[in-house]
């Protein structure tokens, strides 16, 4: 298996320089807009809240430890990030159905409605940003971005690089399957 140094030597250095620069620009632009959507909902939900609500919606009620493990962050971070969501009624704490002593987090009806508002706004933003793109270009970008996120997640987890073909756009619709949402700022 080639080392990172071999890959840097083997690949065109200019391409890697361009790639790292574009990733840095993307990160800055994403933070500036927070990919918050359009209209009144723009910048109305931070990344951590969106990712937590999204995971609870897609996977259902779960405990803090399971939520943290699935997102690649520690339990104390999840506890800190969930607190304001509980306080505002977007998430509710309930008893575990099998072990009444354990607490699980669940998306509330208010949280479900709010999440759908934000998703809709973000879909509008993505449509606007990629307005001149073909459907194939959108699918290709989504597939490659999903693959890139999966590779970053694997690297962060200390796993070997993923060498499987890129995920299909259908799989990309459920990013929690292959990538975690971990980031230092989360």
List the defining traits of the structure above.
186 residues, mainly alpha, two-stranded antiparallel ribbon, 8 helices, globular, disordered C terminus
Characterization of this structure:
This protein has helices at residues 4-10, 13-33, 47-59, 64-71, 75-87, 109-129, 135-156, 169-172, and strands at residues 91-95, 103-107. It is mainly α and 186 residues long. The protein has a two-stranded antiparallel ribbon. Strand 1 and strand 2 (103-107) form a beta hairpin.
Provide the spatial order of strands within the biggest beta sheet. Answer: 1-2
Shape: globular
Q: What is the ordering of alpha helices and beta strands?
A: HHHHHEEHHH
Major pleated sheet? 2 strands, antiparallel
- Class derived from helix and strand content: mainly alpha
- Radius of gyration using CA atoms only: 18 Å
Strand content: 5-15%
Mean pLDDT across all amino acids: 81
What count of helical segments does DSSP give?
A: 8
Amino- and carboxy-terminal Cα gap: 33 Å
Model regions low in confidence, pLDDT < 50 over at least 5 residues: 170-186
Number of extended strands = 2
Fraction of residues in H or I helices:
55-70%
Strands, helices and their partners?
Blueprint: H1 4-10, H2 13-33, H3 47-59, H4 64-71, H5 75-87, E1 91-95, E2 103-107, H6 109-129, H7 135-156, H8 169-172
Antiparallel strand pairs: 1-2
């Amino acid at each position: 298996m080639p080392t990172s140094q071999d890959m840097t030597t083997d690949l065109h250095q200019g391409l890697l320089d361009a790639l790292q620069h574009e990733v840095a620009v993307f990160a800055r632009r994403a933070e500036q807009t927070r990919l918050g959507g359009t209209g009144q909902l723009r910048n109305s939900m931070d990344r951590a809240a969106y990712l937590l609500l999204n995971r609870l919606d897609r996977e259902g009620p779960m405990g803090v430890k399971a939520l943290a493990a699935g997102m690649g962050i520690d339990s104390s971070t999840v506890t800190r990030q969930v607190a304001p969501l509980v306080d505002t009624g977007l998430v509710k704490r309930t008893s575990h159905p099998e072990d009444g002593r354990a607490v699980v987090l669940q998306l509330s009806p208010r949280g479900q409605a709010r999440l759908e508002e934000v998703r809709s706004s973000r879909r509008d933003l993505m449509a606007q940003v990629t307005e001149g793109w073909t459907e194939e270009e959108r699918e290709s970008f989504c597939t490659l971005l999903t693959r890139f996120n999966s590779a970053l997640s694997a690297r962060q987890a200390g796993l070997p690089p993923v060498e499987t073909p890129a995920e299909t756009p259908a799989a990309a619709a459920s990013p929690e399957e292959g990538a975690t949402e971990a980031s230092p700022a989360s």
